[in-house]
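Can't paste images in this forum, so I'm doing it all in text. The chain is below; anyone willing to post the predicted C-alpha cells underneath?
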Amino acid sequence: MPPSMRRVSEETEKLRTGWTTGSCSAAAARAAATALATGEPQSRVEIKLPRKGEERRVEFEVERCELGDGWAEAVVVKDAGDDPDVTDGAHMTARVSWRPEPGVELVNGEGVGTVTRPGLGLEVGGPAINDVPRRMIHYSVEEALDPDERGVRVEISVPGGEAMAEKTTNARLGIVGGISVLGTTGVVRPFSTASWRASVGQAVDVMGAQGGDTFVLSTGGLTEKAAMRLLPGLEEICFIEVGDFTGHAMKKGLENGMRRVFFVGMAGKISKLAAGVMMTHWTRSRVDNELLAEITRESGGSGELVSKMHDANTARHAYELWREADLYRACDLVCERAAECLTEYAGGKIEVYVILIDFDTLEPAGASAGALDLTTAARESH
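Text version of the structure:
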C-alpha cells in the first residue's frame, strides 16, 4: 500500500463508523413489531445488516418504546459516527399497527419525504425510502411477527426531518416534506460519504428521467452559484454539487444518455481532474506540482514562475501565482487538460466544458475551448 493511502487507512481506523437512516429505521421497526407481537416494550433490539456472505447482526438501543390499542411505536436515535451528516441525532421512529390485509404496508410519516418526480427508482407519490432500507425494514419486521398471518402497517417518521431536508438536495430531486431514508450497507464509514455519492447518482437519474441532456457539476455551494449565474437558462435540477464524486457523476451521465456537461470549480479540483484523478478528496489524491509546472511552462511563464510551481503548497497557491503574473493562459490550459481527461473518461460520448472560478471574485478566471462562449450565449438568450 502506498504511504499516502496507508495514512488514509490509519486515519479512517481511528474514526467511529455510524449507522444509516435505513439501519436505524429498521431497528425501530423491529422494536415496534416485537412490542406489538409480545405486548412488551423493547429497550434493545438486534437487526441483520444487508451484506453478502457471512451474516452480520448488530444491536441498537431503543430510545423509546410505547404500546397502544393495536399499535406500538419505537424510536432509535441515529449515530452517524465521525462522518458529517445532517441526520446525525435524528429520532428515527417506527409505528407498527395491525391491518386487515396480510403483508407489510410501508408508509412515510412526519419528516420523511414523498417522491414527486421519476428517476429515483421509487414510486412517484410514495415514501422516499430507498430499496435497501425497504428490504431491511421488511425482513426486520418479519423476524418479529408473521405478516402473512396478520398484516401490519409500518409508518416511518422523523421529528424535524423537514428542516433537516432543507440542508440536502431533496427538494431539487423532487422529494418534498422531509429526508430520504438511505443506505446500501447499513453502515456509515468516515470519508466514504456514501450518502453524498448516492445523492449525486440520484440527481443525474432524475434528470435523465425527465429527458435532460445537459448537466452542470460543481464542487460546492459557491461554485454552484457561479454556475447558475453563468447558465441561467438551465433548470435548477441540472445543477449538481458533485463534491469529490466527479467520476461517479460522469458514469451516471453516460447511463442516462447525457450529451453535454459543464464542470465549474476552483483550482484544486480542476488541477486534479487535469491529472486524470476522478476521486478528488484531499486525503486520496494530491495536486501534481510537476503538472502545474509543465502547464506554466507551456503557457509562457518565466523560469522563475515555473520553479515556484514545484514548491507551490496548494493548487490555490499556484493559481494565485498565475494571477499575480497575469498568466491566465495557464488557467485556460489547466481547464483544457481537465476537459480532455473528462472526455476520455466518458469515452468521447459527452461534450465536456470546464470553467475555473476565482476564489475571491467568483468570476471565471479560465475555461476550456468554447465554454465561456456557450455561457455568454445562454445569458443573452435568457
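Residues 207-381 form one domain. Residues 1-13, 280-285 have pLDDT under 50 and may be disordered.
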